[in-house]
């Protein structure tokens, strides 16, 4: 279990170093991350609200986007407040139970994100390759089913991965050179056999990344082939523009994952890992609504209409 000694488990803690190695940056980083978090909350909640109140955006693509925004909001809220707290307080400790809870919810959000991006790639594939059958293929029932599958599988994966942590024992308080409860944190702090946990982590991580990435790649191969066969330049541009935002988000999301997990676990790479973790935990949830709002004409048009109504009402 989490610890072989119940009394011991109540006092075993994790102490995150965070960015304490750079005391002169604590206040500037706090202000920066606070601004990013505020933009993340406003951006994602605003995206959900815009999609809900605008009938023009009641389509499968925006239905999936609203859930992506919800998941990004939840994921940012799980990690960023603790990061902000660690930048301004001296006590950077967190109990193992709290850390496991943070990790469990975070995993659910990340895997849901992956599946949602794969579902959105499939949606773009149907819209571009089979436009006349789009409403048939992407029916409301199918869209609801795909979202339900995303949340369900993410929850199952999270439960299994969390269980693989609960069988570990932690013998003493550990100082962690990071700021977020990642899987590597628990493995580095455990004093019991880690082979089972490492096996479960490897299987589920590779399964989720590989399967979702394959769906995305296959979808875009068919999309690019279809676009290439179009005779009209304006038609090609219009088709590509409909998936440009999603392709940008996918590139940033998976690019960060590969950056984080391809870095060797050495002391020299800890700063790069922490920077990558900040980008993954704090920055990406902010970028997604910005990318979709800045690159999407429908969203920009809805925003303009809302602004015009606000001006008129004043």
Task: Describe the overall structure.
The chain has a single domain (about 5-314), classed as Rhopdopsin 7-helix transmembrane proteins. The relative contact order is 0.14. The protein is globular, with a radius of gyration of 22 Å. The protein has helices at about 5-10, 25-55, 60-90, 95-130, 135, 140-165, 185-190, 195-230, 235-260, 270-295, 295-314, and strands spanning about 15, 95, 175. Strands 2-1-3 form a three-stranded mixed β-sheet. With about 325 residues, the chain is mainly α. The protein has eleven helices and three strands; from the N terminus they run αβααβαααβααααα.
Features:
76% helix; 3% strand; 314 residues; disordered N terminus; Rhopdopsin 7-helix transmembrane proteins; globular
The CATH topology is what?
Answer: Rhopdopsin 7-helix transmembrane proteins
What oligomeric state is this?
single chain
Helix percentage range: over 70%
Largest sheet, spatial ordering of strands: 2-1-3
Low-confidence stretches: 3-9
- Strand portion: under 5%
Number of helices: 11
